[in-house]
Amino acid sequence: MNNNITSLGYTVFFEKELESLQEFINKGNYSQILILVDRNTNDHCLPVLQAALPELVDYDIIEVDPGEENKNIDFCIGVWNTMLDFGADRKALMLNLGGGVVTDMGGFAASTFKRGIDFVQIPTTLLSQVDASVGGKTGIDLGNLKNIIGTFTQPKAVFISSAFLQTLDARQMRSGFAEVIKHGLIFDKDLFEQCKTLDYEEDELDAIVHRSVAIKNEVITQDPTEKGLRKILNFGHTIGHAIEGHSLVTDSNPLLHGEAIAIGMICEAYISHKVNGLSIEALGEIVSLFTSRYERYEFDASIYATLIDLMRNDKKNEQQKLGFALLSAIGTCDYDRFVEEDLIKESLDFYLASAVL
Amino acid sequence: MNNNITSLGYTVFFEKELESLQEFINKGNYSQILILVDRNTNDHCLPVLQAALPELVDYDIIEVDPGEENKNIDFCIGVWNTMLDFGADRKALMLNLGGGVVTDMGGFAASTFKRGIDFVQIPTTLLSQVDASVGGKTGIDLGNLKNIIGTFTQPKAVFISSAFLQTLDARQMRSGFAEVIKHGLIFDKDLFEQCKTLDYEEDELDAIVHRSVAIKNEVITQDPTEKGLRKILNFGHTIGHAIEGHSLVTDSNPLLHGEAIAIGMICEAYISHKVNGLSIEALGEIVSLFTSRYERYEFDASIYATLIDLMRNDKKNEQQKLGFALLSAIGTCDYDRFVEEDLIKESLDFYLASAVL
């Protein structure tokens, strides 16, 4: 069964063995193939790619260090310089093989190199498969501000293979799973229900990844540059990104993106209950799912001011007001809801209390 | 007379007092106005802008150092960080008031900040008025490679005022004038003839700037992302950019862009004569105009290998062949002409000889 998804001018292929990739490359008449990997995907995922490309004998590998803390301008300059060292011209193709760091930064590097070369995203983590594979967002962090520099540039194709998920540890799976739950919360109550019982069995996982990408694609094709509807994808992210940014600079073993977003979703579900009509029962269901699957993260009220400062630089804000996407029910989300600082702090208090329920 | 030019989705206003700028800003409902200047435009051009904007009481100034050597990623990071410090959100507007460094780097910073905010180009040098005001190219240098990182992003408007040209010294005027001559050479024999006698008198200059922008606009609207025709705008730039890049890292008082391009045009006119049918008489006319107006630049054959290396990273190359735009007559230019190294070296020899004719 061909269950590919058509996004903004390109195809998302769901293929365990990347069966169509060789043909895609042959059609493109590219001068050169660059493959961006990190240390992990170089070891565990590159062999799958090489097996899928029997005709590709000549290519250049660019390796970056794994970890969100390396998705920064310094590494990006390193990628640009390596592309120059390899003599890449405007007809080169970049294959980004990795998690969000590789696909976000690789997409940004490609979209700005000689004013833009073609790139293909091959996300290898659950998180990047369900979150970064459609939408055309590229980006890097600056200091502790996430994805603050970037472009909207569509890849030429996306390849999603369940083979790569076998290489992930439980913590990485949980991180990606948070975005799946989010897609259920903002758009599809059935998906949310499924999430309650998921045990990462392969067939079930395939279906959930596909449904997640389909939901995100439905949202972003209606609003490619985030003027309106697309903002619902940011549910949990206003507070979650701040917590993630804070953790990146203070923790020796920082939170993964999904772990931070899970905390953000608890807080923002609380705010949704307080000001956007989300019922107390729905709030209870949401808190219960997250606290059963995610470990408690320790912090206290002394960091609230820092978190609020980080939120002030969130891309969704306007005129200095803090913008949120808020649920009105499980499966339904609104956007451009502006929230007072006191309620944000209250929601952080709620997280700290709820996590020990 | 309204002689505005319509480009790719925006208007180029030719207005000495920037008469329409206030109305443009009012219509945009922007959260904030950022003005990017360099030290020179802060002193000499900002007062003109302020006089044109009587209703604008609140704005933030970002100042960068003038000079092509500062159009790099480090300064760009400084601009991004200053935008963050000023709390700029996605509805901020950036006014880039300056020469090519300010418009290229400001355009790049704006097009990548929070994945893109609106910007307006207000070029203040002859060079940036005739070269950078249409086309949507943004960019920064990396090392000694010019504009190697950038995007194609259209501004929301461009304002060209002859008032700013009064602030320029003779050397800056000559630098910009090289691009005017280029527009004549590649597209309009009449403009080339006019250039022979131009003495920078204001009315005549106005007409020549307008004609130059109109020519460039005609080319770029047919080929916004430089897949074909647009490459003719690069006449003189393959060799000129290499000489400019070399000068930037070796000379204490580096060549200005137009000065380097003038050298590049002599060399590439020679190559045009050798392999693209440009007559010996036309070559003579071209050499004569440039040598009468531009000083000889000293170098010798020991730097040829360095220059060729720099050309190898030119954005117009494909498959390691060096790509040129070449004249077949004055007013007519071809593109995608690939040239051997030996002929390039011969053309540099020709420059060194011609300059003492």
From TrEMBL, chains A, B:
One of its GO terms (biological process) is chorismate biosynthetic process. Its EC number is 4.2.3.4. It is an enzyme of class 4 (lyase). One of its GO terms (cellular component) is cytoplasm. Residues 176-317 form the 3-dehydroquinate synthase C-terminal domain. Signal peptide: none annotated. This is 3-dehydroquinate synthase. It comes from Sphingobacterium psychroaquaticum.
